[in-house]
Amino acid sequence: MIFGELPLDKAEGAILAHSVKHDGGMFKKGRMLTADDIALLKAAGVAQVFAAKLGADDVPEDEAAAAVAKLVGAEGTTAQAPFTGRANLHAACHGLAIVDVDRVRALNRLHESLTLATVQPFAIVEEREMVATVKVIPFAVPRDVLAKALAIIGNEPLLRVAAFRDKCAGLVITRLPQTKPSIIAKSEEAMRERIGALGGTLAAVRVVDHEIAPVTAAIAEMRQLDFDPILVFGASAITDRGDVIPMAVTKAGGQVLHLGMPVDPGNLMMFGALGEVPVIGVPSCARSPKLNGFDWVLARVMAGVTVTPEDIMDMGAGGLLAEIPTRPSPREGKPKPQRAPRVAAVVLAAGQSSRMGTNKLLADVNGLPMIRRTVAAMRQAADLTVVVTGRDAGEIAGALDGLPVTLVHNAQYAEGLSTSLRAGIEALPPDTDVAVIALGDMPLVSPEAVRRLIAAYSPAEHRSVCVPVFKGERGNPVLWGRQHFEALKGMTGDKGARVLFEPLADEIVEVAMPDEAVLLDADTPEALEALRGR
After folding, report:
1. Which of 216, 366, 419, 479 sits between 20 and 30 A of 505, alpha carbons compared?
2. Of 298, 276, 277, residue with least CA distance to 286
3. Which are the contacts of 507, defined by CB distance < 8 A and separation ≥ 6?
4. Which sign, positive or negative, has the C-alpha torsion 400, 402, 405, 411?
5. Using alpha carbons only, what angle is made at residue 327 by residues 324 and 332, rounded to the nearest 5 degrees?
6. Average of per-residue pLDDT across 521-533
7. pLDDT single digits (tens) 69-98
């Protein structure tokens, strides 16, 4: 890769490292310069640009990031399309992140150009939460480095999310003569909350005397009722394998796999099994909502992840959980995790087709109505799809029969495009993060194009309006962040949302597309025939 100041005569195909102004505006960092771009720069008196020009042995950043992201995640993860050399992976379920730490380190030690960051091993993650990100540092990765990275991954991904299972747990609480009812109630409440937070149910609770025989009977009953896991919350801490709870597990036909753990709080936990069912002696610190070693073990059990004595012993590195001056107070909470945006596609299908003569959205495009092709593509990339109808609303609805979309009728469609924009935005659920505004007469736009727009979205980096571009020309659909919804609803007349581009110039990112589908609509019979031929 050649990187540095390039004279314009040698800059065609180079990627801008710094933004540069021209008479018509600005070319932003990351733009691949075309012959037309260079002509504009020359006309503006620009003699050279700071850019990168790739060689035959360089793999472009997005191609390299996509190749790694496609293989690095397994079950329970989804990979986002790459943008500026970054491809994020998100959790597809609520579960436990399982990370192959050694191979992640091996990949990151290959070369400075290619990086992989993951959440902490065994972190509890929510659906849609970011669990990993692949980032190419320069504009390309050497081809041999990428090959080595893919070889490290091979057929065994480095990351998966084990979904929490809907397990029914049983709880045995023991009591001594001096045990207060409030302690028993607190023990049950703490376990019910912990099990529920991990997707399970506390199905039964038995309160028995803190003696071997009644504890043995209660454990055996829980096993007979098929509860999994079985938790035993003792009135007295477990201090030896000969203590009440370990002995009760043994007499019930189980075994004590490990006593104690190198995690504080949580030292006095016991881990055993009755057949395939884990039996856990709960440490007294678990009456508190604060994190302790028992939580780490319980999370693995609820996700169906095997726990060995070695696993427990290895928890000592990072196992000092007691509050110390450098650890944030619980009141401060934890940072909000990054997550995949919730995406709505708003397909505008209310137009009058005045230049076509008939409703173009109902026209056949290679065996399907045009509007159905457009909506089907949007649905593949978005979480929900809203279709705004106007003229021929019944026929449009019929053309979409069987597709799970929300139909919104705009009775004021004759007053202009802005009324359809307003109707579509007002129909979105309150948790919608972004809206992809699509035109119903652009059936060639692919789901991959929409995914590229979604990948580019980053309000923290002032990329809240994402515009597709082919060879320097802006097209559709356009992605709008939630912060712009009020402005979209406030528009009037027969104007599209592009009138907002100028005041929002600092929020716009242009997203290069591999083909001209984002430019092709069907406003005339001739344009429709051209679409059919593609």
Report:
1. 419
2. 298
3. 462, 463, 464, 465, 481, 484
4. positive
5. 125
6. 80
7. 999 999 999 999 999 999 999 999 999 999
The 8-class DSSP code of residue 404 comes to -
CA 60 – CA 47 distance, rounded (Å)? 26
Q: What angle do CA 474, 475, 476 make, to 5 degrees?
A: 145
Q: How many CB atoms lie within 10 A of CB 156?
A: 11
Q: Which residues contact 271 (CB under 8 A, 6 or more apart)?
A: 256, 257, 258, 259, 261, 278, 279, 280, 281, 297, 307, 309, 312
Provide the residue count of the chain: 534
Q: Tell me the C-alpha distance between 157 and 424, whole Å.
A: 40
pLDDT tens sequence across 45-76: 999 999 999 999 999 999 999 999 999 999 99
The answer to whether residue 354 scores a pLDDT higher than 60 is no
Q: Tell me which amino acid residue 119 is.
A: V
The single-letter DSSP state of residue 85 is T
Nearest to 507 by CA among 489, 473, 482, 472: 482
**Average confidence score pLDDT of the chain:** 93
Q: How far apart are CA 354 and CA 352, in angstroms?
A: 5
CA-CA-CA-CA torsion sign (517, 518, 522, 526): negative
Residue 514's closest CA among 461, 464, 444?
444
Copy the structure tokens of residue 101: 């730490």
